[in-house]
Design a protein that fits this description.
Elements (H helix, E strand, L loop, with lengths): L7 H4 L5 H14 L5 E2 L11 H12 L12 H13 L10 E4 L1 H13 L5 E6 L4 H8 L3 E6 L10 H6 L5 E7 L11 H13 L4 E5 L15 H4 L7 E6 L12 E4 L2 H12 L7 H10 L4 H24 L13 E2 L10 H12 L1 E2 L1 E2 L9 E4 L4 H18 L1
Parallel strand pairs: 1-10, 3-4, 3-5, 5-6, 6-7
Antiparallel strand pairs: 2-8, 7-8, 9-12, 11-12
The chain binds pyridoxal-5'-phosphate.
The site of pyridoxal-5'-phosphate has 13 residues, from helix 5.
């Protein structure tokens, strides 16, 4: 049979490492193995009831037809209000478009702003989709390494050493997936300084985990922090993580009006509007009271702390305290085995499912999620300790 010639575009990206491991975990579980899965990239609770209700009401009210590609006007206006009050970003609804998750917001942005060979600086560890999305737009991901021992701090010299005449974007992500790091003011200052010194460079601030923060921490949006640079800062956000609405696929892109317009054109010729009635659910989500998030954050705080303290006790592991999101990113004792081999072996031998750091650009780490029960986290820590003792 004739072999199909796949496009260069699709051949430029690698198949997901995580899918491979979760397929193996499923197979073992189906064969009766006791599996402890700490790889979740999504909250383990349900979306608020008010959101479910508003969505089902929208269906029965007939809010089920095509809508504007840029999103429902009411939702765009409500997001503009939220950005003004909560994030201190002063913009109009025309600076916002609704996308199929935060992922499509990043995808659209690079499709409309990158040309072949344009470079995008991505600090590692990074969310695994950034390099692939850059490549799909013809761009070149340029990785700046940060180190666990240095609290994954992005040093100015390291960042500027990667800037060339082709640099078009820098990506930052706080709170961070996979490290749980929350950028401090001094670090935001460095990023703002670099943008000021390099007028041709734009920035993506991925704030999808903004609501998942350790007690006492506050989220700072770079577009508000560096208000004079707001024209070059694109804020990415969505409803997936904070409201536990991962499968709903509602995100948004915030930036210059002409870019939002171009991105809406792209969306109108690709996926069209985000599901109309789901946007009604997102509108209701914006009305959810603070207590809902406080309650969830209390749970995450407790789990994060148990995970962090447990990891600290495992000999040979290096761990920074995660301050946001729901992950920890411990460093394994040494490089004798790759993170992929470690994850495969600990799945086979101890039934533990964690994500290899290689997927996030750091092959000596693993990502452990605390979007699961305390019992499971403690069970996972016991299995991890055994795996480390066996392999090192
Ligand atoms: C850092 C980061 N950005 C963006 C996304 C995409 O979010 P969404 O589900 O809204 O597309 C994720 C999802 O895991 C993420 O971790």
């Amino acid at each position: 049979m004739r072999k199909e010639n796949l496009s260069k575009r699709i051949l430029s990206i690698e198949p997901s490492l995580t899918l491979q491991i979760s397929a193996k975990a499923k197979e073992l579980a189906a064969n009766g193995r006791d599996i402890c899965n700490l790889s979740a990239g999504e909250p383990d609770f349900e979306a608020p009831k008010e959101v479910l209700k508003a969505t089902s009401n929208a269906i029965f009210d007939g809010f089920t037809k095509y809508g504007p590609a840029a999103g429902d006007l009411e939702l765009r206006k409500a997001i503009a209000k939220k950005l003004k009050i909560k994030n201190k970003i002063e913009i109009d609804f025309e600076n916002i478009m609704i996308t199929n998750g935060a992922k499509q917001a990043i995808y659209n942005l690079f499709q409309v702003l990158l040309n072949d060979g344009d470079e995008v600086i991505i600090p590692s560890p990074y969310w695994l989709s950034y390099p692939a999305i850059v490549k799909l737009a013809g761009g070149k991901p340029v990785i700046v390494k940060t180190k666990a021992e240095n609290d994954f701090k992005l040093e100015k010299e390291n960042l500027t050493s990667k800037i060339t005449s082709k640099t078009k974007f820098i990506i930052i992500n706080s709170p961070n997936n996979p490290t749980g790091k929350v950028l401090k003011e001094e670090e935001l200052n460095i990023i703002a300084e670099v943008l000021k010194e390099n007028q041709g460079i734009n920035l993506i601030s991925d704030e999808i985990y903004e609501l998942i923060l350790k007690k006492g921490y506050q989220h700072i949006s770079l577009a508000a922090f560096a208000n004079d640079l707001k024209d070059r800062i694109y804020t990415i956000n969505g409803f997936a993580k904070g409201w536990a609405m991962t499968g709903w696929r509602v995100g948004y892109l915030v930036g210059r009006k002409e870019v939002i317009k171009a991105s809406s054109s792209l969306q109108s010729q690709s996926t069209s509007n985000v599901c109309s009635f789901v946007q009604r659910g997102a509108l209701a989500a914006l009305e959810i009271k603070k207590e809902f998030f406080d309650n969830i954050n209390n749970k995450y705080d407790e789990r994060r702390e148990i995970l962090f303290q447990g990891l600290k006790k495992i000999k040979g592991i290096y761990i920074n305290p995660p301050d946001g999101a729901f992950y920890a990113f411990p460093k394994l004792p040494n490089k004798t085995i790759s993170s992929v081999a470690f994850c495969n072996k600990s799945l086979e031998d101890y039934g533990l499912v964690v994500v290899p750091g290689q997927a996030f650009g750091d092959d000596q780490c693993i990502r452990i999620s605390c979007a699961s029960s305390i019992h499971k986290i403690e069970d996972g820590l016991t299995r991890l300790e055994k795996a480390i003792k066996t392999y090192y």
